[in-house]
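Homework help thread (please don't just give me the answer)

Our assignment gives two proteins as sequence + structure token strings and asks us to describe the second one. The first is just a warm-up. Here they are:
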Amino acid sequence: MNENTTGGGRLAAPERGPRPGAPDDGARFAARAPRFRLGADVILSDATALRLAECLTKLRHRKTIYVDWDFGAVDPLGLSTILNFYGPPGTGKTLAAEALAGTLDLPFMSLGIAELESKFMGETAKNIQAAFDAARAAGALLFFDEADTLLGKRLSSVTQGVDNEVNAMRSTLLIELERFDGVAVFATNFAKNYDEAFRSRIGYHVHFDLPDLDARQRLWSRMLVAGIPLRDPREPLLARCAALSDGFSGREIRTCMRLALPKALHEAERHGQPPGLALAHLEAAIGEVRKAGDEVASSPEHGRGPAADSATTRRLLGVD
């Protein structure tokens, strides 16, 4: 039995269509077929994998819980599944959201800051409604990246018209989350910026950790695809790379591979020999990524806090 089935049937997409009179936003908010599945394409820590498995269990057994057991009588909003993926950059939050859609056999609709800046101008509240309507009509999993911009704390001291619009945007989002009966996923590196009203409405808060030693070894193994010629034995190479990359995210491990492979080719060209990836190439790449993290990356205090969150929201509304 597949994870996305209960008994003999596939998890049903929401039946409710768009509100009467809602615009056709199929082109503006397009869903697509997901490219990944959990388990097959995503390497997660045990704690993160367990939390997602519990969420999948709820989705598979929604009818049992809310109809057969009548829990819907006291939890009428529980048919929706709202998740928050939070944790350091590069830990697989976006990949996991798409893979969750793939596991559920749902179309995937992703909205990031780039899309929001171009689409959520002026009539922001109406456009949020349109995004949810489009996801509902397509039966899609709706994914919001950098969600702290949307779910940030509402402004208590309203001094400008834009402040009213920020509050209206967030109030509309709260309403849409309450009436949405599908699956929505928010992802952020800054979960502490969320307004309490949003935090309490999210059913599953899933923390994405930096990979531990075992997860790093599995990540290196996945990146070291069969077609890459090796000059050193594979298993000792994986163990050494996993140990050297302590504190790295999956994204940084992939960056190491991007740096190491040209090194192997460059050395082969210089010496007129067949190319082969060696531990020395990977060690050099790991050192470069670590140095960049120490010398180039912003320090935590220069990350996106409330002030930067407000600035991004104003830009999103077209008033910066």
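The one we have to describe:
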Amino acid sequence: MPARSPGRLRAALGTTRLPVLLAVVVVLAGLGCLAAALVPVGPDQLGTAGSIAIAAAYTWALSARTGGRSLFYAALAVAVGVAVLVTDEPWLRTGAAVVTCAVAAVLGVMLTVPAVRFVAAARECCYAILVAAVGAVATLGFEPSITLLRFEYVTLVLAFLGCFGVVYRLGAGLHGLGRRGAAAVLIGCGVLALVLAYAELLRRYGTPGLVEQLLDGVRWSRDNLGAFPRPIETLLGVPALAWGCHMRARRRQGWWVCAFGVAATTPVASSLMNPSITVLEAGLSVLYGLVVGLVIGYAVIRIDLAFTGPRGSRARRAEEASALRPEPARTSPLL
């Protein structure tokens, strides 16, 4: 039997699922280490080691998904993690936590696939939130020394820059936007600016009466429902990700909409950084934001189809059957 050439051997290995399975095993092992550190069981460095394992696996996955040098960047993540363990410098722990949070947020969006129907779009949002939630545990495991508001802003900016950098290539540059894509990006930027600016203005210059009314609503939700959803996740991130995945099944401009999905995954990846709330409350906040965001996303998709889709149930079913714009599988490189 003739021997395979090195090129064919590499191609055959590239089509196997072994690297993906190894990455999943590493992530599960990292979660196990972090769980043991919470008990606590084992050495003091076990939690940090678990965070390093998850950060390395996520870095490999993001690099592989975006067509980068996955082994190189995974090795770099491990090297930084080893430096954190050896030096135990607060600034290095904080830097590792920031990067891990941003990587988890971008990876959650990049692992999504096109969704022909809303149910599939909701599933993709759940996948993205789950990836970011694991990243939140890894981020906490680094035990960073942070100012909460600054940490949230820095990770959000890094996640947006990273995601838009990838989407710029996936969406064929700015000229691939089209009118609908440009309108969606402008609306997304407007909603993002409005949410951030309103929160900042309210925090700095809000009148005591207005602030107290809003805080009363937050307190009622926390007392009766156990948590209050994050506005940026609920109003922008989840609806944009659901609509973007739905649009990607029909046209590539959907990637530009999906980029705003990091407005959902970044708050999730940093949700455990707030020491004033419990893990249960953080989880409920993410869950409520996901549910309400999906309701808004469904309304946005229906409005989009009402203006651009065919009329009648038969025509809609025919449109869904033809909405098969090809994209690589979830475990294959996008570029």
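TA reply:
I won't write it for you, but here's a hint about the kind of observation we're looking for: The chain has one domain: 14-322.
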